[in-house]
Here is the input.
Amino acid sequence: MLCIPLMLYSMSPMVGLEYLDDCFFTLICPLIILLLSNQSLEGRSVVRKKKRRILYEGHRKLRLLHVQNRNDISSKIKDQRGKLAEIMEPDFGLLPKLISSGGLNLNEKEKIEAEATRSGRSKRLLDLILANGKHHEFIAALWDSGQIHVINWIRGNGVYSPEYGDDWPLEDREIKVIDRNFDKLSSNLVTAHGLLEKLFSNCIINYEQMEFLKNETKHSFKHSEDFLSILRRFSRGYFLLTLECLRELNQDHVARMMEKLEEGEDYSPDNGSDLPLERRQIEFMDRKYDWLIHNIDVAHGLLDKLLSKNVINFQMMEFLNIETKTSFKRNEDFLGILRRFSHNSFSLTVKCLRESNQDHIAELLEKGGRF
Here is the structure.
């Protein structure tokens, strides 16, 4: 245990003696309390998790000090202004943190928010930070808003180092995949029915982002568009966690579109069953939309079969089973979800329709696709 204060003391020329007291209370004291406390066998795993978290936060804090004590922050921000405007998230908490620390005033905040695009808001913010010399406040606000990958970009002046791990912006290739397939991703991604809650519980998005994305006045397509605009500014680590969450919620086809497809690869059943439906299948359902709404029976057994085969999750089932919905509205909502299924989920849906004595619906859907 004594090695930690000795380590901090040896680092004092780099981090500054004035910060050692704060490190003592935020890093060392909690660890001493946890190590000396008598814990039951059941509580030891919890203690280990807390110790790892404290060490992680302490390490992050020391890394921040290393950035703050460098004299070339201003020149690095200036040199990387264009790239920083593309990778940093100016909304959802950053500006209030700068206001509270004195990095911005209210008039400056209004000027930033008047910009129409995220990149425009980021550039205006960076210009104000450079003009006012509020570099330390800017770095601290990035830290507090979880944008460690942006700090590391500044630290490395755009050059990656293994010590950054996954706290690094997405590569241009990964962003191009998202941008190139933006419309298809928006059409297939389902942000409702569990995804946002899972991302929030894993600290990938914050409460403001979740509330923004859950706005009930928006169309589901707009929800997906807004989420993708936020996603492209994630760190590599958050991006990988998002892919895991998508797979856990049976959206493997969306995860594959984001991660695996290389430039020039086409979407077809030959590439695997975890790909989105083809355009002709969706267009076929759109042409038969009115007929399907009036003839499909979602209520009597179909949803239970889809849930048992992991085609839909519990949140989807609860959403479709709301008692106040008419059968017409329930069918309409189901078809809205169906058109975002993967090939595999679509095929399983056809099988479930046959098992629930709706062969006429299954035959019609099969007519629009290859099975």
In short: Residues 159 and 352 are 52 Å apart (CA to CA). Residues 41-68 form the longest helix (28 residues). The two ends are 63 Å apart (CA to CA).
